[in-house]
Design a protein that fits this description.
This protein is mainly α. Helix content is 74%, strand content 0%. It contains 17 helices and no strands. Helix 5 packs parallel to helix 7, helix 8 runs antiparallel to helix 9 and helix 9 runs antiparallel to helix 10. The radius of gyration is 19 Å and the shape is globular. The termini are far apart.
Length: 295
């Protein structure tokens, strides 16, 4: 081997290892919480770019998202045949739309193009299929979400984090029961799933006017990296007539995510697509805000 060849071999081996880590991300590994290597994104190889992606998925936030985005944009230029990197890049573009991160205006078109490229390169790539479902979800094409998500699950039903996300998308596409069932089964086999997956169970409980269960599920979420955590705790607690809890959660929302607190409905509608469900959350937030302001 030449030096260049050895470096390429190192990248390939490490990339394969990282792919396996990503498949099992439900069991969160502490090293992924730390920023990878410290190199500028433009100098990262494909597997290092993927490590930035996994780091972002653990901690979230604009800064981690931007670093992962830049790294993956460069990675697909350097290694355009790497399907997983295209899928990961598509997911980050989707998160711009869904979570309000900074990004270009035509973000969903970019997300779709990247997901389509990933599927074209490897139509058996589970992540690619799942992110295509995510793109379709953000486009509001729920029948296609079901089709793509079910295909993703069928490719490997044992990958906890990806199957759980498929359940999340199915639930918010109009089948809360199936979505909750998938997520609950995933958590039986691997209980270390990210807290945001409980959002489906919270919205199902709100949809049933079972506000105490909604609050119990909201307290299980504990994912302060996203505004959804204090938002759903505030709404659920207010509807369950737990006024002090609701007021405290709403104050937390205002402190940590003032832009979302000032205008929550667009943020809510990114994932909650049905008017009755949005109305329930908004009603709870209005009650929580009233309690937080002392009215």
């Amino acid at each position: 081997y030449t030096v260049h060849g050895l470096l390429e071999l190192e990248d390939e081996v490490a990339r394969n290892v990282l792919d396996e880590i990503g498949k099992r991300l439900g069991a969160i590994l502490e090293p992924i919480r730390r920023e990878p290597r410290g190199k500028p994104p433009r100098l990262l190889s494909a597997y290092e770019a993927s490590s930035h992606y996994h780091h972002y998925n653990v901690i979230h936030g604009q800064e981690a998202h931007q670093r992962a985005l830049v790294a993956l944009q460069r990675a697909v230029q350097d290694d355009p045949e790497y399907a997983l990197a295209w899928a990961q890049l598509s997911e980050l573009y989707c998160d711009v739309q869904a979570l309000g991160y900074e990004g270009p205006e035509d973000i969903l078109e970019k997300a779709h193009d990247c997901a389509a490229r990933a599927v074209e390169l490897d139509n058996l790539c589970q992540h690619a299929r799942l992110i295509m479902a995510y793109v379709r979800f953000l486009e509001g094409n729920h029948p296609e979400v079901f089709r793509q998500a079910e295909m993703a699950i069928a490719l490997n039903p044992n990958v906890a984090h990806l199957v759980g996300f498929a359940g999340f998308l199915i639930g918010f596409s109009g089948d809360l029961e199936t979505g909750c069932s998938i997520i609950d089964e995933v958590e039986i086999t691997n209980p270390h799933q990210p807290g945001w997956m409980r959002m489906v169970a919270i919205v199902r409980a709100l949809d049933r006017s079972d506000y105490h269960t909604a609050l119990t599920e909201a307290n299980r979420m504990r994912f302060a990296q996203l505004a959804w955590d204090p938002l759903l705790r505030a709404a659920s607690a207010a509807l369950a007539e737990r006024r002090s809890e609701a007021a405290a959660a709403h104050r937390e929302l205002v402190e940590l995510y003032p832009e979302v607190a000032a205008d929550p409905e667009p943020y809510i509608r990114a994932y909650v697509h049905f008017d009755s469900q949005v109305a329930s959350i908004m009603k709870g937030l209005e009650l929580a805000q009233s309690g937080a302001s002392g009215h």
